[in-house]
Amino acid sequence: MPTTNSITLLNICRAIEQTPDEGLMAIERDALVATRKALRALRQEVDRALLRLAILDEQ
Question: For residue 39, which of 13, 2, 14, 17 has the smallest C-alpha distance?
């Protein structure tokens, strides 16, 4: 899977938040599935980084 720039994904998140449901339903299903997959991967990266930082805070 090609990597997607994290900043691009954050911008997509902001666009999704501002788009009415009807607008999201108009987007091609394959594009939505790919976007969800990329966002989930980003969330996993963020969660790992946060966990690592939390461990450092405990020391």
Answer: 13
By CB atoms closer than 10 A (0-12, 13-18, 19+), residue 4 is: middle
Closest by CA to 49, choosing from 17, 31, 57, 32, is 57
pLDDT of the residue at 4? 66
User: Structure pTM?
Assistant: 0.73
Q: How far is CA 58 from the centre of its chain?
A: 28
Helix, strand, coil in percent for the chain, rounding step 5? 80, 0, 20
